[in-house]
Every structure is written in structure tokens, then in C-alpha cells.
Design a protein that fits this description.
- This protein has helices at 14-27, 31-44, 71-82; strands at 53-54, 60-61.
- The chain is mainly α and 83 residues long.
- It has a domain at 53-82.
- A two-stranded antiparallel sheet has the order 1-2.
């Protein structure tokens, strides 16, 4: 694949332009770079998203990662946020 730039003019809907502009600002990119990045993401296909199961209490269960989160860890991080 050759690495060259092609200059062209396109017409976007207002919603598409707003989305691309927001995406660009959030990532510190030019509008052109943001649109290129978004197109590459679409070409790559959907990301693998683990299936979410619903627990007996009706809440979604996150996939296991092998890491245990203890009540002490939650307490420590909660205290850190308050400081």
C-alpha cells in the first residue's frame, strides 16, 4: 500500500461533522486525521466485546478477569478520592 495523501472535498451531514469534530478535539487531531482514524476503525471491524450476563438479582455481570477486588481495596480508593 502506498503512503500518499489525496485531497478531496466531501459533504457531511451536520451530525457527522459534529461527531468528527468532537472526536478530533477530544484526541487533539485535525478533522482530516480524525476522519482517517474513524474510517480505519470501521475497516478493522467491530472490537470483541465480551458477552454480558445478567445475574440472579437482575444486575449485569462483568466477565472474569482473574483479579479479585476486595472491600478493603474499595474502601482505600474511596478514601483516596475524598482527599
Amino acid at each position: 500500500m502506498q503512503n500518499y495523501h489525496m485531497r478531496t472535498t466531501i459533504t457531511l451531514s451536520e451530525e457527522a461533522h459534529d461527531f468528527a469534530a468532537y472526536y478530533a478535539r477530544a484526541r487533539g487531531l485535525t478533522l482530516s486525521a480524525a476522519i482517517n482514524e474513524l474510517i480505519k476503525k470501521v475497516e478493522a471491524g467491530p472490537e470483541e466485546i465480551p458477552a454480558t450476563r445478567i445475574g440472579p438479582n437482575g444486575l449485569p455481570l462483568l466477565p472474569r478477569t482473574g483479579r479479585v477486588i476486595t472491600s478493603e481495596m474499595v474502601k482505600k480508593y474511596s478514601e483516596d478520592e475524598l482527599e
